[in-house]
Design a protein that fits this description.
This protein has 524 residues and is mostly helical. The chain has 2 domains: 202 residues, Growth Hormone, Chain: A; 219 residues, Growth Hormone, Chain: A, CATH 1.20.1250. The protein is 78% helix and 0% strand. The protein has 21 helices and no strands.
């Protein structure tokens, strides 16, 4: 009887303890929500800022790192067959064995894919590096990897060692992976709220510029020859040295200075230089409030904790936004555009010139996106949905015109080129730039580094999957492979419409609140 009474008393105590703990957690959550709401209201009253010469200098210097990413995507397109022939010759001289075409293609495929493998490792480590050493220092020393990679890639033929190509591609992938997680975050942290979209788009803009330049360098009359292709890889040292010369004059992220170093005075000086005036008290106070809100341990999660609790749904949405970019099919068109044009009836050097032309048009479209991304009538959500919808329609028309062209209707091949053009242009207006800085707008300063690393890693994984699977699938089902992208673009357009809020001019707390509300409304 005494035992039963004791157990009953113990259970009451446990229930009381759990109840008290639950009440305390509820009060804590309510208090946190109140702070987040106050922080959100505070940013709405921040004055709109204008571009300043120093802000433009910093944004341009930081985005130079993105040049490497785009260059490595585009530079392998034209000289690929030349490098494969050199690999066969090099292998015979090293080992006395004659490689078959299949074996040489496989070695080249491994070299190409090592870029994505390195990117996965680099992007995953970018959050830790950015939080541990700072945005500026990480970006500065990341250039060392780029220089080592450029040396390996450009001197491989000189030393007659094709494994240097494989190793160099891995190193440059590591460099670009760190860049992909770091640069969009750094750009948006320097930008005032009303210019976040434009500043964040500089990452994709530099990628587009680099793709065009690298493809142009691969033309036969420039470096597209057996003697010239090593110089293509050497050219990436130019923007690397340029960033090494300019990044020391850039400020560290004010949000990093406050949230990680607790250096309010240095953050003030950085803001004053960026805004070109001393009236930065409101913006500085908002950063301090955001840091105070996220200073509790529960809001400083590790990587696994990003998939639990209040961070779970925002993290999933960030990853799906990255998937919407890569599974749209843009990588397939970028990697295999020359091959696609050859199969579409273009001959000689025409496919290479067409590829460069498409790169130029994509670049122009990316410039156009800069004027719309912060526009009151557009914003991120509408542009992203419009871009995915345009790609969805274009992919259907690509399949139809390719089918007609294969059936003997030669006029359809010209229409096919037009629809591939619309596919690329609509990508540049939304799915191209927006996913890169979406994560930085969604997460606060305490979680932004790790969240950006996870979302960037998911982008590299998706990139690798598309690059690896598209050509084999295309060889089996031919033009109908583009119907995969029809499905993905339609699905992600609907997902964005239903579950993704507009982020333009809003605080992370306000965006997350709306994000969770939209999910609950759809699931109820």
């Amino acid at each position: 009887m005494n035992t039963a009474t004791s157990n009953t008393v113990s259970n009451h105590k446990n229930d009381s303890s759990v109840s008290c703990q639950s009440e305390m957690e509820q009060n804590s959550d309510n208090s946190m929500n109140e702070k987040l709401e106050m922080s959100s209201k505070h940013e709405k009253h921040l004055p709109d800022e204008k571009w300043t010469p120093y802000l433009f200098f910093c944004i341009s210097s930081i985005a130079l790192a993105s040049f490497q990413d785009g260059f490595q995507i585009g530079c392998i397109n034209a000289p690929g067959p030349l490098i494969i022939e050199w690999i066969k010759k090099c292998h015979f001289e090293l080992f006395g064995e004659v490689l078959s075409q299949y074996q040489a293609d496989f070695i080249w495929s491994v070299a190409v894919s090592m870029f994505s493998v390195g990117g996965m490792f680099g992007s995953f480590s970018s959050g830790f590096l950015a939080d541990r050493f700072g945005r500026k220092s990480t970006l500065l020393y990341n250039n060392v990897l780029a220089l080592i990679a450029a040396t390996c890639l450009s001197t491989a033929k000189l030393f007659n060692l094709y494994p240097m190509i494989v190793f160099g591609r891995f190193l440059v992938g590591l460099n670009c992976g760190i860049t992909s997680g770091l640069v969009p975050m750094y750009l948006t942290e320097l930008a005032p709220p009303n210019l976040r979209g434009k500043c964040g788009s500089f990452h994709q803009l530099n990628i587009s510029v680099a793709i065009v330049l690298s493809q142009a360098l691969g033309l036969p009359f420039i470096f597209g020859s057996q003697e010239g292709w090593p110089y293509i890889f050497a050219c990436v040292a130019i923007p690397t040295f340029l960033q090494l010369a300019t990044i020391p004059f850039c400020v560290e992220s004010p949000k990093y200075l406050i949230s990680k170093l607790n250096d309010r005075e240095e953050a003030r000086r950085a803001l004053e230089k960026l805004r070109n005036h001393t009236k930065v008290d409101e913006e500085l106070e908002h950063m301090v409030q955001e840091t105070m809100v996220t200073a509790e341990p529960v809001h400083q999660p590790g990587y696994l904790a990003l998939f639990k609790g209040e961070n779970q749904w925002p993290m999933i949405v960030s990853i799906l936004m990255m998937f919407s970019q890569q599974f749209s099919g843009i990588s397939a068109v970028t990697f295999y555009s020359t091959l696609i044009f050859k199969r579409n009836g273009l001959s000689g050097n025409e496919p290479m010139y067409a590829t460069v032309g498409f790169g130029c048009i994509k670049l122009i479209a990316t410039f156009g996106c800069l004027g719309l991304i912060d526009h009151p009538r557009f914003g991120r959500k509408r542009l992203h949905i419009a871009g995915l919808s345009g790609m969805c329609i274009s992919s259907i028309l690509i399949v139809i015109t390719l089918t007609l062209s294969n059936a003997g209707f030669h006029w359809a091949s010209y229409l096919n080129v037009l629809f591939i053009l619309s596919f690329v242009v609509t990508f540049a207006f939304g799915p191209g730039p927006i996913p890169w800085f979406f994560t930085s707008e969604l997460f606060d300063s305490a979680t932004r580094g790790r969240a950006a690393a996870v979302s960037a890693t998911s982008n590299w994984v998706a990139n690798w999957m598309v690059g690896l699977t598209f050509l084999p699938i295309n060889n089996i089902i031919h033009q109908y492979a583009f119907l995969m992208f029809t499905f993905f673009t339609f699905t992600f357009a609907v997902f964005t419409w239903k579950f993704v809020p507009e982020t333009k001019g809003k605080t992370p707390s306000a965006i997350r609140k709306e994000l969770i509300f939209m999910r609950k409304r759809m699931c109820s």
